[in-house]
Design brief:
The structure is a single chain. This protein is α/β, with parallel strands linked by helices. It has one domain: TIM Barrel (Alpha-Beta Barrel), CATH 3.20.20. The protein is 33% helix and 20% strand. The chain contains eight helices and eight strands. It has an eight-stranded parallel sheet with strand order 1-8-7-6-5-4-3-2. The chain is globular and about 45 Å long. The termini are close together. The chain binds 5-O-phosphono-D-xylulose and fe (ii) ion. The site of fe (ii) ion has 6 residues, from strand 2.
Length: 218
């Protein structure tokens, strides 16, 4: 069974809580919150105050995708704001193992994201220390981009590594995922599906969520 993580980047920020209520009512399990700093990625979004304003009003896993430089500096602020799962980019962490340990010391789940050009090999030695790997299926920074097909063998490579190392962690995919291509990523090994524009841009969110689930049966 997959878990769905609508990305609020594609929600209507002037109506954020009511937009999120719709995906919560539709049964989506994770709330994917894209944090961008204008340095690590060429875009700026939201920070801890928005997360703490939503916390307590929404019963979903708060999945915080940090696309920021120097994430160590802000991990505690995001944990305090209400993040359940904190995802840092491999490319943004000089001492990735230390960063993961500091997320876990705060009692939060830890995930590591890989940009499309970053090899699976770079997380081989910390695979036992994390709860999730996020395979970026677009270059981070914006919603509504096209899925990069060459990420399918990468997801498969990660799945094989997990099986070889006997670790049972989540594999999340993020970027350009739709009801049309979800089967491909799930067949390759993904089990948490981020979708921004495909969900919030839909005229019938309940139906789109249903379609994501039906189409992901492999
Ligand atoms: O992290 C990111 C983009 O950097 C994503 O979470 C996007 O927000 C997903 O949006 P879609 O590609 O599904 O529209
Ligand atoms: Fe994201």
């Amino acid at each position: 069974m997959i878990k769905l993580a609508p990305s609020i980047l594609s929600a209507d920020f002037s109506n954020l809580l009511s937009d999120i209520k719709v995906v919560e009512d539709a049964g989506c399990e994770y709330l994917h919150i894209d944090v961008m700093d204008g340095h690590f990625v060429p875009n700026i979004t939201i920070g801890p105050p928005v997360i703490s304003a939503l916390k307590g009003k929404i019963d979903m896993v708060f999945d915080v995708h940090l696309m920021i430089e120097n994430p160590d500096k802000y991990i505690e602020a995001f944990a305090d704001a209400g993040a359940d799962l904190i995802v840092v980019h491999q490319e943004a962490c000089t001492h990735l193992h230390r960063t993961i340990q500091s997320i876990k010391a705060l009692g939060k789940k830890a995930g590591v994201a890989l940009n499309p050009a970053t090899p699976i090999e770079t997380i081989k030695h910390i695979i036992h220390d994390i709860d999730m790997v996020l395979i970026m299926t677009v270059n981070p920074g914006f919603g509504g981009q096209k899925f990069i097909e060459s990420m399918i063998p990468k997801i498969k490579e990660l799945k094989s590594l997990c099986l070889r190392e006997n670790v049972n962690i989540d594999i999340q995919v993020d970027g350009g995922i739709t009801p049309e291509n979800v089967k491909k990523v799930v067949s390759a090994g993904a089990n948490i599906i981020v979708a921004g524009s495909a969900i919030f841009g839909s005229n019938d969110i309940k139906q789109t969520v249903k379609l994501f689930r039906e189409n992901s049966v492999v």
